[in-house]
Amino acid sequence: QPHSKVADGYNDRIQAFSATGIFLDKWGGPFAMNIFGPFPGWFATVTDITVGPAQNLFVADFYNHRIQKFSHDGTFLSAFGRFGGGPGQFRYPIGVAVAGNGDVFVTDFQNNRWASNAHHGERTVGTGGHSPPAFAPRDLSFVVNFLYRDAP
After folding, report:
1. Beta-carbon contacts of residue 32 (< 8 Å; ≥ 6 apart)
2. Which of 36, 48, 51, 144 could form a disulfide with 60 if both were Cys (CB 3.0 to 4.6 A apart)?
3. 126: domain range?
4. Going by C-beta distance under 8 Å and a sequence separation of 6 or more, which residues neighbour residue 109?
5. CA proximity to 46, closest of 93, 84, 81, 90
6. What is the DSSP annotation of 13-52?
7. CATH value at residue 139
8. Would the pLDDT of 30 be above 70?
9. What total of structural domains would you count in the chain?
10. Given this model, what pLDDT does residue 138 score?
């Protein structure tokens, strides 16, 4: 049955709704609000979600500085990222997109970059660091395997 997943950012949860808008399920949520740490399935502000080619859900977990991966039914599968500016590290991941081949792209807000393949050996684009950004991506998405990004 077709349904939609919604990032309920400041309630720290994902919600699922039917095609007609009927509430189906949720995970994360009030019990996990602002509990920072590496707890699987817990969020500290969800800023973006996307579905990969295998129907897995990827979630940008902003204040936990990571991306979490879930099955289509909300079962936690894995997570990657931690606070920092090096490979595999993020400073506030704000956007996430997955290419048709499964490559994951992350908009890394305070590092002023986006990172690709963060879980298989990272490539980055952008200035990095905290200086005034010449490249300040806010989101990204794929349309027929072309990457589009939004920057001020």
Report:
1. 12, 13, 39, 41, 42, 43
2. 48
3. 45-150
4. 62, 91, 92, 93, 94, 137, 138
5. 93
6. EEEEEETTS-EEEEEE-GGGTT--S--TT--S-EEEEEE-
7. 2.120.10.30
8. no
9. 1
10. 64
- 140: which strand partners? 149
Q: How many Å separate Cα 148 from the centre of its chain?
A: 16
Q: pLDDT category, 14, cuts 50, 70, 90? A: very high
Torsion of CA 6, 7, 13, 19, to 10 degrees: 0
Give yes or no for residue 103 having a pLDDT over 90.
Answer: no
Note the pTM of the prediction, 2 decimals.
Answer: 0.80
Full strand arrangement of the beta sheet holding 46-51: 46-51, 57-61, 66-70, 76-80
**124, part of any domain:** yes
Q: Is 10 a domain residue?
A: no
Both tokens of 11, joined, read 């309630």
The verdict on residue 33 lying in a domain is no
Which pair of structure tokens corresponds to residue 132? Answer: 């005034």
Does residue 86 lie within any of the structural domains? yes
Distances (CA, A) of 63 to 3, 24, 40, 93, 134: 27, 27, 14, 8, 23
Whole-angstrom distance, CA of residue 138 vs CA of residue 118: 17
| SS3 assignment, position 39 | coil
